[in-house]
Amino acid sequence: MEELCDGICCPAYESKLERNQYESLNETIIPKLCERLDISYEDVKCACDENELIDAIHEYFTNDLEKLAQRLAKYSDNTNFVNTNLIACLYYLLKKEYDKLNNCVRKLDIVKSSMNIIEMATFLIITIHYNIATLQYEKAINYYRYLKMLECDNQDVEIMQLEAKFIIDCNLYNKFTNSNHDIIEMDYKDLKSNHILSCPITKQINFQLEYLKTLDGDSALEYLTNLEKDDIYHNVKNFTYVKALALAKANKFTELVEYLDNLNNIGFKYASLYAYAVRGLILKMDDKNSKPAMELKKKLKGIINDAKMESGDTIHIAFLKLMELEIDGDTDVKIFEYIKYEMGALFKNYNVPFYFEYCLNRSYVLIGKLTKYKEAYELLGKLLFNNN
Length: 388
Known about the structure:
Blueprint: H1 2-5, H2 11-18, H3 29-37, H4 41-61, H5 65-75, H6 81-95, H7 98-111, H8 117-133, H9 137-150, H10 155-172, H11 181-195, H12 201-212, H13 217-227, H14 237-249, H15 253-261, H16 268-283, H17 291-306, H18 314-327, H19 332-346, H20 353-370, H21 373-386
């Protein structure tokens, strides 16, 4: 080591380089060390960049936002365009800053043909997770197929690939289109037996909740009642939504309204379920304009006014408007056309099985009442095709 460093740097600095503890590559010292070792400086730079990216992938995988932020700050002046933007994408995705994320993705899209395997795998993971976050599961499954063909041997990527497959399968599953629930069972079993213990506890809980979303309402509520006894579940944001969804699927309208009344700052995905419960309660009333009915409508309007827009809310807002049509007693023709033209179009990109099943069931009822058989055939064919 002393012979290598003689006249170039101190052995302590070279030792830090070996242990990957350097802050940045010294553009004067490193080329001289490479020359003395008779190796390519460019190869060393590429290897260091790849290590940085691999570490960033692990920080994203373990939800370590602080370390990822530090890496991005250190790496922002680096000349490696691809890796700098990939690390930025991982950071923005974890922070849910989707405008900044999309800006980086557009830049990367231009140069993706020059990416190596680990860079391309990271790019695909980012794209898959973004589409999952925005409920665009059909797009996510297409990118997942590309990732699987890539056969990247990075362990974090392999686990995230399996995670993505499980989440996509859970959300594309639909009992009306004969989707095979056994596939979800196999995915979940594989996650639990091989990979889930390496994930942060919040991820493990979210996998469990994704699985519960595929069960019927009563079965999911039975599981959730037991899980609620453990305080750790109360800190997982997705828990409240899965419980609200289970109450909606079980048609427990009163319990759902009471549950959502006790939550603070609920968004449109909750507001849509609240509207579903209000619709169910008002339909049971003899007088749709009674005082209890008007109070429910007033509460719903307050929730809608207070709801904050989030990414992926388009489908939630559309279903909420459908519920408002039902609550206000609009004509069957108007409701049928809304399902056909508005909901039907959105189901091409966004998938929430609960909304889809409601629209399909409602369409069957309206077909008989309206005798719109030709339109109904087109609508049902489109809905089933887009969600099969």
